[in-house]
UniProtKB/TrEMBL annotation, chain A:
Membrane-topology descriptor: Peripheral membrane protein
Taxonomic placement: Bacteria, Bacillati, Actinomycetota, Actinomycetes, Streptosporangiales
UniProt protein name: Dipeptide ABC transporter ATP-binding protein
GO cellular component annotations of the record: plasma membrane
UniProt key word Cell division: no
Matches recorded under InterPro entries: AAA+_ATPase (IPR003593), ABC_Ni/Peptide_Import (IPR050388), ABC_transporter-like_ATP-bd (IPR003439), ABC_transporter-like_CS (IPR017871), Oligopep_ABC_C (IPR013563), P-loop_NTPase (IPR027417)
GO MF annotations, alphabetized: ATP binding; ATP hydrolysis activity
Protein source organism: Herbidospora solisilvae
GO biological process: peptide transport
Keyword vocabulary terms for this entry: ATP-binding, Cell membrane, Membrane, Nucleotide-binding, Transport
Stretches assigned to the ABC transporter domain: 6-255, 346-590
Automatic annotation (TrEMBL), chain B:
Cellular localisation: Cell membrane
Stated name of the protein: ABC transporter permease subunit
Membrane-traversing stretches: 12-32, 103-126, 147-166, 200-220, 265-284, 304-330
Species in which this protein is naturally found: Herbidospora solisilvae
An MF annotation (GO) of this entry: dipeptide transmembrane transporter activity
Length: 668, 336
């Protein structure tokens, strides 16, 4: 039997810096075979990136590695410089997270690809350019010849990720390592990008190590998964089994923390991953584990076979779980609250927002005629791909960008009619929770100061402020000792609690959540979602929840609107929109949403092409270029929102679509 | 086309800047204590002599009148008449700017090349002995006063070793150089005067060396810092992780990204050098612009001071314009 492509044996990495010591990896063992896709999952700090770096011999300064990283039999940790240079790229190539940051800004992407081709495939300049063009075409870049001469900053996020993949595959590696390749990408793109990795394994016979915190996305493409926690492998085995019926409590916690489009409830696990100073002597998950016993805290559980399971399925736990992962029914409480009958706290009427270009005329229309209303006690979900105008809508609601046309009314007052002090007063009625919790807190102010900010704007006395701040801290389960700290001393989850407390402080009429959990780790995400679910239940307040993640929105929105290129394409009660989508775009979004369960149950459609707003500039339906059902009238006629049942959709062919689908999945 | 529009726009901005400089220097030079007429006539002149001289240079007129006269002259290209020498300021500048420009441009070019080579090398060998040595040397060069450094170089290069000509001008008078631009090396090259070229080059070496040693330190430090930053940046690490060869890494991923941050600092150094070569010029009897401007200031020669400030301001604006264009060429993200 020939050796595995990659075989990591008992790898431990300790990073020593003056004043601190971190055990990044402790006894990690895993392997990747040729033509195999292995998922490496876990939360940040678990050591995923450290595994990737050790495979290409790029450990950070001050790190001490023991064990072995065998690549085709040779130990990477003991290679000399020449062997390492040959191994990097040609042996194992990394597809970096944040592709835009990892592409050199001063070199055209074509040159960056030909550099790899000439180095590893020994092509001459002209051959390399031709090969580069083909390479670009295979990763799905349109007009590849033109793109060769583009600089990275001229590319969209999805395009940059494709270029990054082409760079990594251009090295013709035996092993392709993808470090969080889909972070920040839309659902449709995520699916498409992950398919590329599956293809690399199936058609080129490469080994693929897919690093991700997003279990649902990678579930479909991986053969096996390895779950890391605090630098140790806690579970490893065939993807379908590990993700379907996980045996380790941590894997189960991870899975239960992920909201799913099929609407099942999220169960949060308390606590956070510890930062280990030395290799653990006990089970690192024990403090958070509901099944932990005395043995778990006194001894490190050995890696063993999962009892009664066939195949290559191991875990490190004294108390493996064998029962079915409890699937709770969709939470029924969100519906039937009847918020719509109440007084609207927020109304947007045919709002257009145009970003002018810096010089000269023209500009970019970010919102084109959006109307919505949110009643007190109601939660409105806003979903769409990046670039669809979600963030502009948030800014508009807060009065941070002016509407070129149309109007925003908060608690009955028209925002555009007010100036100066009155406008500032009205703005305190709408509060926002941002995506990056630590970045949205001033680094020089304490937590108590940050929470009290809106109260100071309202002119409350210091004593009253302190009282309110403490009450808010208690409500959000923030320890009072936390109030004197500064943002850099907080974890992401704590910081997001502080941000929510700050938003609540002034008792606003409207809360806007702009992707509040997408920067957080999976288990922390679940904890924050619980907090938000509690906050939006307040009957006096309306909430707007913006997210590209459909599953999160489904969890607690009453109604949902779907945005596409600055227009609302569908609007209606959440169960209706998710259960029976009318607009083809909504159906496509739901079809490509990753799911660990059954996912979207209706007939699916897929849009493969990238969102490109130059094409939508003309008249007609903006989706026409990507829609499988578009005909000539769609391309020329402006689409208005029309009522279908109790939802509204901007598509003239909605009544015909069930026939067009005929129960079969359609790909474009 | 874009670049032409950018240039035109920036050159139009030059007008208000220079106008402001003209007004300010015109006023400031008159606020300074001292009187140009007293200085040129000496202590024994009678008040009548002084009044006559004042009238001759128009200094008896109301200040607004004087300013309008001066401005009118500027529009027609007349920079006025030197009170001290009685010749046209424009003609004198013509003689003086060339040599100084040649000195500064060459010194900066040498300094830039040295700074880039040593800076990048230093960053690639960061925190090793060579890196510390390079930084220490740059610091030493930067902390030596230029007149002293010039004297030491003369002592070693001329007196002791005898490799270089005496510090007594810019070119051997026997070489029969026909002045065209005032920049002797350039003139010699243009007139194909071989001996003059050699002589001018030999005369240039020591002053250029002095000036470069003095200005190289900030450039070197900046290059080293940005090269280090690039070396630790994600794109560079990514390129390394893909196993590219050292040469490709250096040329394709390190150099241009490093240089993209240099132009604005280089422009600043260039601008300062134009005004501050005066000590080097004194030491090497260069008869350049700095020396001339300083003498004008000492004698309160109003037209000379005004003209020299104007020239320096003009150079600053043009050099920064060039720096912006170079930056845009080096860094594709910069839009102009």
């Amino acid at each position: 039997m020939d050796t595995d492509l990659l075989s990591i044996e008992d790898l431990s990495v300790v990073i020593r810096r003056p004043g601190r010591e971190v055990a990044a990896l402790s006894g990690v063992t895993l392997r990747v075979g040729r033509g195999e896709v292995v998922g490496l999952v876990g939360e940040s700090g678990g050591g995923k990136s450290m595994v990737a770096r050790s495979i290409v011999g790029l450990l950070p300064g001050g790190s001490l590695a023991s064990g072995a990283v065998r690549f085709e039999g040779d130990d990477v940790l003991r290679m000399d410089d020449d062997a390492l240079r040959r191994h990097r790229g040609h042996g194992a190539a990394i597809c970096f997270q944040n592709p835009r940051g990892a592409l050199s800004p001063t070199r055209t992407v074509g040159r960056q690809l030909t550099d790899r081709l000439t180095t590893h495939q020994r092509l001459t300049g002209a051959e390399a350019r031709k090969a580069a063009e083909e390479q670009f075409a295979t990763v799905g870049i349109r007009s590849p010849r033109r793109r060769l001469d583009a600089y990275p900053h001229e590319l969209s996020g999805g395009m940059a990720q494709r270029v990054m993949i082409s760079l990594a595959t251009g090295c013709a590696p035996g092993l392709l390592i993808a470090d969080e390749p889909t972070t920040g990408l839309d659902v449709t793109l995520t699916r498409e990008i992950l398919r590329r990795f599956r293809l690399a394994a199936d058609t080129d016979g490469r080994g693929v190590l897919l690093i991700s915190h997003d279990l649902a996305s990678i579930a479909g493409v991986c053969d096996r998964v390895v779950v890391l926690y605090a630098g140790t492998v806690v579970e490893s085995g065939p993807a379908a089994r590990v993700l379907g019926r996980p045996a380790h409590p941590y894997t189960r916690a991870l899975l239960r923390s992920v909201p799913d489009v099929d609407g099942r409830a999220v169960v949060a696990t308390p606590g956070a991953m510890p930062l280990l100073k030395a290799a653990p002597r006990d089970c690192p998950f024990a403090p958070r584990c509901a099944h932990a016993t005395a043995a778990c805290t006194s001894e490190r559980p050995p890696v063993s076979w999962v009892p009664g399971a066939a195949g290559d399925w191991t875990l490190a736990c004294f108390h493996p779980r064998t029962d079915e992962l409890a699937r709770e029914e969709p939470a029924a409480e969100s519906s039937g609250r009847g918020g719509a009958a109440k007084e609207p706290v927020l109304e947007v009427d045919d709002a257009h927002v145009v970003y002018r270009s810096r010089f000269g005329t023209g500009g970019h229309a970010a919102l084109r005629g959006v109307s919505l209303r949110v009643a007190a006690g109601e939660t409105l979900g806003v979903v769409g791909e990046s670039g669809c105008g979600k963030s502009t809508l948030a800014k508009l609601l807060l009065g941070l960008v002016p509407a070129a046309r149309g109007d925003v009314r908060v608690a009955g007052s028209r925002m555009s009619a007010l100036r100066g002090r009155e406008l500032r007063r009205l703005r305190t009625r709408v509060q926002m929770v941002f995506q990056d919790p630590i970045g949205s807190l001033s680094p020089r102010r304490t937590v108590a100061d940050a929470i009290a900010e809106p109260l100071r704007a309202l002119g409350l006395s210091a004593a009253r402020r302190a009282e309110r701040v403490e009450a808010l801290a208690d409500r959000l389960k923030l320890d009072r000792s936390m109030l004197a700290r500064h943002p850099h001393e907080l974890s992401g989850g704590q910081a997001q609690r502080v941000c929510i407390a700050r938003a609540l402080a002034g008792e606003p009429d409207v809360l806007v959540f702009d992707e509040p959990t997408s920067a957080l780790d999976v288990t922390v995400q679940a904890q924050i979602l619980e907090v938000i679910a509690d906050v939006v239940r307040d009957p006096a307040r309306g909430s707007v929840f913006i997210s590209h993640d459909l599953a999160t929105v489904r969890g607690f929105a009453d109604r949902v609107i779907v945005l596409y290129l600055g227009r609302i394409v569908e609007e209606g009660p959440v169960e209706e929109v998710f259960g029976n989508p009318r607009h083809p775009y909504t159906r496509a979004l739901l079809s490509s949403a990753p799911s660990l369960g059954d996912g979207f149950s209706g007939p699916k459609i897929t849009l493969t092409e990238d969102l490109d707003d130059t094409e939508a500039a003309g008249p007609g339906c903006p989706l026409a270029a990507r829609c499988p059902f578009a005909d000539d009238r769609c391309r020329t006629e402006e689409q208005e929102l029309r009522p279908y049942g109790n939802t509204r959709a901007a598509c003239r062919r909605v009544p015909e679509i069930p026939d067009l689908l005929k129960g079969s999945d359609i790909r474009v | 086309m874009r670049i032409v529009r950018f240039l035109v726009r920036r050159l139009l901005q030059l007008v208000p800047v220079l106008l402001g400089v003209v007004v300010l220097t015109f006023l400031l030079v008159r606020v300074l204590p001292g009187d140009p007429i007293r200085t040129i006539l000496g202590p024994n002149a009678t008040p009548e002599d002084a009044a006559a001289a004042r009238a001759r240079y128009g200094l008896d007129q109301p200040i607004v009148h004087q300013f309008l006269d001066y401005l009118g002259g500027l529009v027609t290209g007349d920079l006025g008449t030197s009170i001290q020498s009685g010749t046209s300021v424009g003609a004198e500048i013509g003689l003086r700017v060339g040599p100084t420009f040649e000195l500064v441009v060459l010194a900066l070019a040498v300094a830039l090349v040295v700074a880039v080579l040593l800076g990048v090398w230093s960053a690639r060998h960061a925190d090793r002995a060579g890196d510390h040595g390079v930084r220490l040397l740059a610091l030493v060069g930067n902390s030596m006063p230029e007149f002293w450094l010039g004297l030491v170089l003369i002592l070693v290069g001329y007196s002791v070793l005898g490799w270089f000509p005496a510090p007594s001008g810019r070119v051997d008078p026997d070489a029969n150089l026909t002045p065209l631009t005032g920049a002797d090396l350039l003139d010699a090259a243009l007139t194909l005067n071989g001996p003059a070229f050699g002589s001018a080059l030999a005369h240039l070496i020591l002053p250029v060396a002095t000036l470069s040693i003095v200005v190289v330190a900030p450039l070197l430090r900046s290059v080293r810092a940005s090269a280090l930053e690039v070396l630790h940046s994600e794109p560079y690490v990514a390129a390394t992780a893909h196993g590219l060869s050292g040469r490709t890494l250096l040329r394709g991923y390190l150099l241009r990204a490093t240089l993209a941050r240099l132009p604005s600092l280089a422009a600043l150094v260039f601008g300062t050098s134009i005004g501050s070569t005066v000590l080097v010029e004194y030491v090497f009897s260069w008869q350049g612009f700095g020396q001339w401007a300083l003498r004008g200031l000492l004698y309160r020669d109003y037209p000379v001071v005004q003209a020299s400030v104007l020239v320096i301001a003009f150079c600053y604006v043009v050099v920064f314009l060039v720096a912006d264009v170079v930056q845009a060429v080096l860094d594709p993200r910069v839009q102009i």
